Fold:
Amino acid sequence: MNVATLYGLCAAVLIGIGLYGLIVLPHPLRKILSFNVVGSGVFMLFGALAKRGADASMSADPVPQALLITGIVVAFSATALAVALVVRVIEVSGSATLSSEAPAKGKPETSGPS
Amino acid sequence: MIATAASAGLALLLVALAVWTVVARDALVAISGFIAYGLLIALVWVRLSGIDVALTEAAIGGGLTGALLIGAAARLRSTEAAAHAERCGATTRIVALLLSAAVTLALVLCVFALPHPAPSLASAVQDNIASTGVGNPITAVLLAFRAMDTLLEAIVLVIALLGVWSLGPDRAWGGRPGIRYTADPNGILAYFARVLAPIGVVIAIYIFWAGADHPGGKFQSATLLAAMWLLVQMAGLADAPPIGRRSLRVGLVVGPLAFIAVGFIGSFASGAFLSYPDGWAKPLIIVIEAALLPSLTLVLGLLLAGAPARESSK
Amino acid sequence: MSTAVDLFTCISVGLGAVFFLAGSLGLLRFPDAYTRLHALTKADNLGLALVVIGLLPQAGSLAAGLKLIVIWLLVLLSGAAVSQLIARAARANERRG
Structure:
């Protein structure tokens, strides 16, 4: 099997692993981490498609690879925003729970009018 | 033969690292695994003939994302025990496992069902690249053929930064993000920052300049510059700028504004937004890249620094 | 001539890989942070140096060879600085608790 198919399959497995972690892990920061694993799997799948588009002049199709560079940067900005949200939620409410019941222990600490 | 075995070994190692990232108990352990995973994916990109993407993945996916997550995990250590107490039961795990297996299976079937011969735009890029004046096909795609995507990406980055800024408490609006790092001015971290930062800046400018004809470009360069800036901040040699500072805000928007201005020049001179008049492609591309580099550096560094946390002194 | 050069590359890179393996084994098996750092520096210094020396004949030009050496020097610099910082942090942790 050629290298593009190999990494396409690897990417499929990585997406599955990341999806499992996204559902199962309780802490929001671990969910963000698993989401990044899913994202990197998707990028690798796209890269395998780009490699398949190789022809005589270039060893890979440059258009999907350029889109991937854009994607990696935008994924980082989304991760930064998600991390800032999680830190702020934990600062305000005092606990990292995503469940819908109010936290039973500890008062939510306020940090100024917000 | 050996190359295929090496690729297969790399793929297995990646899967093992991803599993470790998911099952590790401690968040910092998982994030360390994730950083190693990001760097190995850069190797995968080299195997897939995407050197520019490998540079971007190593810099942003491995480096900046790892630094961001480590900073967050260090701040959220106290909440880990409580979150661990509410981990889900066996039924959720089994359902999640089945769902993930189904998604993986569907994607595997898609990979095997891909059309042969593969559709490709490589020949179209190769035919038209001479008119753009750059030698690197990725740079040509990013700044000439699909320049609209790069413009929107720069704008999305600034909007994400606004989102992060809006999460600060009201009293800190306009203030400095993060904490004031202090380190022994004669210690190893200050020495390291003093030695490495100039070298990093030189390498970043080289990568920026070489991106026209070789793998490289402004995203990798901006990431390196942002990393050097953060290193200098963490060594206590400089402080994060207050986000209300006018020069900072001007620096953030000068890149996208210059890009939009070049786009309008194109619409007046050759009829379509972001089209380049004949013979003007290379100079306009250089103008856009030179304007975007400081903006991207500021955005990436400030995204990592986070929401404003200290009140502004005025 | 080129087979001799390739053989030299293989031997040198192989030796470097042995050092990396030793460093990783040390990371996994040694009892505390200080001994682990000691094992890791072997991978950084000697392991990477052997790999770079092995790759130097394969570099196309003098400039590419110099870039390889600069990479090794930068890894040495950051490895040394980070090892010091980790050791200092481990010491501070010990003193505190």
Remarks:
- The mean pLDDT of chain B is 90.
